[in-house]
Write a structure and sequence with these properties.
two-stranded antiparallel sheet, disordered C terminus, 13 helices, disordered N terminus
Length: 324
């Protein structure tokens, strides 16, 4: 009997699961031993490369979502966010960025829910309340975004795994383990005995990754360790797993952007990453500002895709293939 299997996934065997387990152990050990160093080194080495590869996957896999006038609107809004991040930090630029983020979410809701008016009205109400909270507590807004970005691979992996003919439960159990269980152990203090003491660099990072009301030495160290761990696993997903096990997405991107087909996307990511790493060494503060601005495109283009995944809308609108 024919079984419907999405083209994005195949029976992958035990090797990828073993890879994720090994990567989880390595990332956790690094985050416990050198939380700040792991976060900074990972950003310098893999930051730009994973931006390029994530954009390639999202633009290829979800080309029916990110297209036409809607894509142009999203890019215009994100460019506004990039501009805010390149300007000197002030209450005005932070508020402007928050408003642009919610404008982007509103555009995504309007596009995805235009045929579901009641759900659209409910989404508008939620966005208004959330925007008011973010404007009132901007420190929490940016901390939540920093960690949320490292959690979203779970939804992309869940969507990808829909095409697995078997082994999906085991695959998702491994993903939930590193996305949810390990951070819970870290934040709950279960691994404090293995966590290296913080230093001045850890304290500086803690200000960006810890909710302001929880910013003390113990909680700050835990949040930096969580960020370092999840960021490392985030890179594992975008630099190793999806480029290898989602060839259809890469092929779709190659057709859409032939100038970056094949190895050219990798070369772009590696060259830009090397340039950014050089800037980090010479002027870390300027490098961080530039990276935060450029990373806005890949981070915020996720939002409309994530929305359709959360709502259960078929993001591809393609008929599944029958595999005998």
């Amino acid at each position: 009997m024919a079984t419907a299997v999405l083209p994005a996934a195949r029976s992958i065997g035990a090797a990828p699961l073993a890879g994720f387990v090994a990567a989880t152990g390595f990332a956790l050990a690094a985050a416990l031993r050198e939380p700040a160093g792991t976060a900074l080194l990972g950003l310098a080495v893999f930051g730009i490369l994973h931006n390029v590869l994530e954009l390639r996957y999202v633009a290829g896999r979800f080309d029916t979502v990110l297209a036409g006038p809607f894509l142009k609107l999203l890019l215009a809004l994100i460019t506004g966010i990039v501009t805010c991040r390149l300007l000197p930090v002030s209450p005005a630029t932070r508020s402007a960025e928050i408003l642009l983020v919610y404008a982007l979410l509103a555009a995504a809701c309007g596009h995805s829910l235009r045929r579901r008016p009641l759900l659209l009205a409910a989404a508008a109400g939620v966005l208004l309340c959330a925007a008011a909270a973010s404007l009132g507590f901007p420190g929490y807004h940016f901390v939540v975004l920093a960690h949320l970005h490292n959690l979203v691979p779970l939804l992309f992996l869940r969507e990808w795994s829909r095409g697995l003919p078997r082994g999906r439960a085991a695959f998702m159990a491994v993903q939930c383990g590193w996305v949810l269980a390990v951070p819970a152990l870290l934040l709950g203090g279960a691994l404090d005995g293995l966590l290296a003491p913080g230093d001045a660099t850890t304290a500086r990072l803690a200000a960006s990754y810890t909710p302001p009301g929880w910013l003390d030495s113990t909680a700050g160290l835990r949040f930096v360790a969580v960020f370092a761990f999840l960021q490392t696993m985030h890179y594992v997903v975008w630099v190793w797993f999806l480029p290898r096990y989602a060839p259809d997405a890469s092929a779709a991107f190659d057709r859409r952007v032939p100038a970056l087909r094949g190895r050219r996307a990798w070369l772009l990511g590696l060259a830009a990453g090397a340039a950014l790493a050089t800037l980090f060494v010479s002027d870390y503060a300027q490098g961080k500002v530039l990276y935060a601005a450029l990373a806005s495109y890949h981070a915020y283009l996720e939002f409309p895709v994530l929305l359709v995944l959360v709502l259960g809308i078929d993001p591809t609108r393609r008929k599944p293939r029958a595999v005998r």
